[in-house]
Each structure stands twice: as C-alpha cells, then as structure tokens.
Write a structure and sequence with these properties.
single chain, 354 residues, 7-stranded parallel sheet, 12 helices, 15 strands, 17% strand
C-alpha cells in the first residue's frame, strides 16, 4: 500500500487530500497541530475535520507536529513515502502583518523543513506545494481593467483575458508579508527540483475553497461570506467598490490536479491554478449568490481601502496545466461551491455563532 504525507491535514486542502488519498488506497500520515485555531480563533479550528478523518479512515493517522520542528517532521519520513502534499500554512495577509516572524517561519522555514525531510528520506517521491497567486504581488493591479456594473474585468482582446499565466513577473511589486513568505517557500520548492532533482510542483492558487473550509474573517472569503449570510453577522469588503474578481477552485478539483501531476510528475513544475473563466465572480456577485442560496440578506459594509498587496482582479490561466495534463478540468462552478458550503455547514453555523 503506498504511503503519503499530508501537512496541514485538517485544513481545507489537507483534509480534502487526505480523504481522497485514503479512498485511493494510500496510507496517509496527516501532520496537523491546529494552528488555524491559534491564528483565527476556535471557530476556525481544524479539529472537526481531523476527527472526521480519523474516525472515517483506518488508513489515516493524525500526528500533532509543527512543521517547523525538523526532528519531529523527519521522523515521519521514510523511503516508503511516494507522495508529499504540503498544505500547512499561515494563510492570511492581515494576520501576517501582525506577526511577521511566525508567518515567515511557518510558511518559509516550515516548507524548507518538509523539503529537506523529503530529500533525505524519499527523494523519488512527488512533492506538491500549495502556493498562491500572491507570489505575483500587486502586479495584476497594473492591468488595464475596465469597470462594469458588478465587476472589474480585462478587455476581451487582452492577452490575459482568459487568465494570467506564469510569465507575469514576481518582481517590482508589493506582495504583503504573507506573499513574501509564500514566495520564499515557492522558490525553495522550485530549487529543490532544479538543484536536487526532486519531482516538485508549485500550484499557485487563486482562492481555494469548499465545504471543508473553516472560513474566518481574515481568511477564506467564500466560506466566511456564506457563514455571515447564514448567521446574520456583518461582513466587511475591503476596497475596489466590491467589484474585485477572483476565480474560485473547489478543493476537490485542486486535489484531482495534484493526483494528475503525481501520475506523471515533472521536475520543478509551476502552474497557476484556480477556477479560471469557468468559476469566478466579483464580491458583489458572490454576495448576490449567497443571499439567493441562503434566502436572506447579508449585512455588509465597504471599507474604502483595499488590503495591502491585494488584487483587484485575478483569473488563472489554466491552459498551461491542461496542456501537460489534458484529462483535468474544473468541475465545480462558483454557485455549485457556494451551494455545497451552505448545505454542508448551515446546521453547524446556525447552532454555533461565528
């Protein structure tokens, strides 16, 4: 039976990966110490997902280890490991600004620890890193966007109208401190591929989402948006007249991309990944969908200033990944995702205030 290691195993991507891999016949070692509850409070805890995985799959083993602890991480690795999915992270712009050292050590140093353990003990394993489009900083804000009634968008004739590809520069831009720590990790993953020959891939994601997401005010906007719509809590939109656009990818679609790569891995691969033109929306459009699904109005306010380094418009170009893995395509549109988030969480969110 093949073995996989998943870091951040109780989080959105980690839990989706762990469940899928168990169902595919893997033994899964899930590294999870619930730092999400430390970052964002008890409502954002990953404990529920970790308990579900442990209670559902005999082949899932949860290990309470911090990815910054090199000795503890290294003890979990062996030549039997065929796949590493590194999804542990501090994921918030705003939180990073309040504690840059913790943000950097979790995101950058933690990634280096996991990479080095893989290099020493299972150098032939596939190494999947959950990166972010924030490696590009605020460069997307220099695009010639047009303002429409409910969104900003690129003109149809623009080369990136269908999505931004990996030729966009990561230099000469404001990244946010979170973007810096994730970029450092992204480059380390690439270098371990190029320098040591590891089969690594960086998936630079747009918003990663789905019903497993413990959305919080500082991270997980679709999940938290639906939660606030259900509970009646007020939601704050930051800047851009609520017309900023994101392409949203369901965690199940993302994990299928991981496994497509694992079936035919490359060295030092980098892809932008998201919902593309298939699954995207503006904040105003997302609010309308949430209200329609939940059957109630959302109380929300608009903060004039956007978050530092945040994007006004982002849609991922999926063609680079699909050229290498033509059997993959996203299956969940934004409305499908929000319906799932509602249906699988409404009872819990109604019982427990945000």
């Amino acid at each position: 039976m093949p073995t996989a290691i998943v870091t951040g195993a109780g989080g959105l991507v980690g839990a989706e990966s762990s469940a899928f891999l168990c169902e595919q016949g893997f033994d899964v070692i899930g590294i999870e110490n619930d730092m999400r509850a430390v970052f964002f409070g008890p409502a954002a805890s990953t404990a529920r997902q970790t308990a579900y995985l442990t209670g559902t799959y005999d082949t899932f083993r949860a290990v309470d280890v911090d990815v910054r602890d090199a000795d503890a991480v290294e003890r979990l690795f062996s030549p039997q490991v065929e796949l590493v999915i590194h999804a542990a992270a501090q994921p918030s712009h705003d939180w990073a600004a309040g504690d840059p050292v913790t943000d950097f050590t979790v995101n950058a140093n933690g990634t280096l620890v996991v990479l080095e353990a893989a290099r020493k003990h299972c150098p032939d394993a596939t190494f999947v890193y959950t990166s972010t489009n924030k490696v590009y900083g605020d460069t997307p804000n220099s695009l010639p966007l047009e303002e429409h009634e409910t969104r900003f968008d690129l003109p149809e004739g623009h080369a990136w109208h269908g999505g931004i590809d990996t030729t966009m520069t990561i230099d000469r831009s404001t990244h946010s401190l979170f973007g810096v720590s994730k970029t450092a990790a992204d480059l380390a993953v690439q270098e371990y591929g190029r320098y040591f020959g590891l089969r690594t891939v960086c998936f630079r994601g747009g918003p990663l989402t789905g019903p497993r997401h413990a959305g919080a005010e500082l991270h997980g906007f679709l999940s938290y948006l639906m939660r606030c719509t259900i509970t009646g809590d007020e939601y704050t939109v930051f800047g851009h007249r609520a017309k900023q656009v994101r392409d949203n990818i369901h965690s199940a679609d993302l994990v299928r991309a991981f496994l497509s790569f694992h079936a035919a891995p490359r060295v030092a691969a980098v892809y932008n990944i998201g919902g593309g033109r298939f699954s995207h929306c503006s904040m105003l459009e997302a609010i309308e969908i949430c209200q329609r699904i939940a059957g109630r109005e959302l109380e929300w306010t608009l903060a004039e200033e956007p978050r530092v380094g945040d994007h006004c418009w982002w849609i991922s170009d999926l063609s680079e990944f699909q050229a290498d893995y033509p059997d993959w395509a996203p299956e969940f549109g934004t409305e499908d995702i929000l319906q799932e988030i509602h249906d699988q969480n409404v009872d819990a969110w109604t019982a427990t205030p945000a």
